[in-house]
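Deliverable D5.2: sample structural annotation.
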Amino acid sequence: MSDVSQLLQEAYFATIKDFKDGSIVSGKVAEVGKREVLIDIGHKAEGIVLKDEFFPEEVPAVGEPLDVFIESVEDEEGRLVISYQKAKKAIGWKKLAGNYNEKDIVEGVVSRKVKGGFMVNVFGCEGFLPGSLSTFINLPDDKVLGHRFVFQIIKLSKQKQNFILSRKDAVRMEREEQRAKLWETLAVGEVRKGRVKGITDFGAFIDLGGVDGLVHIGDMSWKKINHPSEIVAVGNDIDVIVLNVDKDNRKVSLGMKQLTPDPWNDIEKKYPAATVVQGKVVNILHYGVFVELEKGIEGLVHVSEVTWGNSKVNIHDLFAIGDVIEVKILNVDTQSRKISLSVKQLEKDPWENIPEGIEDNARLKGKVVGFTQEAAFIELPQGIEGVVYTKDLSWTKRVTRPQEVLKKNQSHDFLVLEIDRDNRRVVLGMKQLKDDPWPRIVDRYPVGQTVETEVVKTTDFGVFVKLEEELEGLIFADEIDEAARNSLNVGDKISARVIKIDPKSAKIGLSARTEGESGSVSE
């Protein structure tokens, strides 16, 4: 060998590093093929790493530096055997064992599913994630495998080089950190996003991302609502404004309506008294009708402001939810946030000029529109209200309730007895349309006369009997034998003797005893 060849050979071997099996060395990617990656580590031969050792996102480019593990400097066929995964695992384990302890948080990629849980790649080392600690129970595999998550190390054996992870504990710690950070940063007046977590009768609980706040029902909308479910539903993502933060008691008050301008601002200018506007009926109660004038602004038409005449009107018969009606503004109370409305004042008050024909002793036709225990209300022409009392319904019939004679919505003739301007009513009578029959009755049924009667009703204090059509008398309880009284039925015939007659009270007293039997007249 010449001196020149000798020198070249010595120079070549001088560039070859001294490698040992089991060591980790740095190399450079020389070539990237379909199945293999060639790595130049400064050895006389290049090492080969199968592409399968790389995750898709890890495949290096030509010229990139790469650490590899030397499995054999020279195998039986004289080849250099290296591994990227073993180097990665060795370096990763050194990093994991040297810098992390149990309860620390690490990031990892779920690499595969195994019996009882998952394997997670952390720094190139695989740790076990029990299924019970995974939080992946309801997630499909494509949402888990290959995805990166945060975990807590719950067991780390440096001697055995294995570790166990928990996703649940990591999530819990994340939430605790978020909650602590949130409590430090929450400020009154700021707007935050939240999710509706629960709904009660008094409001909705909102998850702000670790801290729950309450939106009271009164802070949900400027308009009146009966239940929070009218505004929100569980799971809704909403914007809220922080109204108050009580860190000592861990309470946060939130608002929704405060994110929009208060519609009651300058409301008096918008709806001055006497203005006529349109609105939509949104609620009907026994005392009145609520009308929405605009979003967040409602007024009340009290039942007394529905009609001039019928004070006993059933407002459910006149209005329905959703009706668009005209109303007149009576009063705006900004402090109480109330608006008084009227429907009847859209028309002229009929009592200013009582319609022609409504005068004392006039005969009028009217419709029955309502009742009390002792009277019936009658609708007269042009919205005038009339009232007829039970005492003025019949000369002879004992009327205890007006419904015994009159039926709602039926029309009858009445006589005007009095025009009561103070109470805005016309007092009516029915019996006055006929002559008073009592002078004739007194002549026909003198005291002592025996008459044939028909049982109408039996009571503890006597037996009511019919003398003729619309004329009844009472056989007093002590004027009839008890056994006989108990055996009587409605429709039975019985003879009785007139013992008392009182035209003023329209009463005829009778006795079923024979003359000479003891007994006393009772009222």
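Annotation notes: The longest helix spans residues 167-185. The helical segments are 3-15, 84-99, 167-185, 267-270, 438-444, 482-487.
The annotation will be released with the project's public dataset once the embargo ends.
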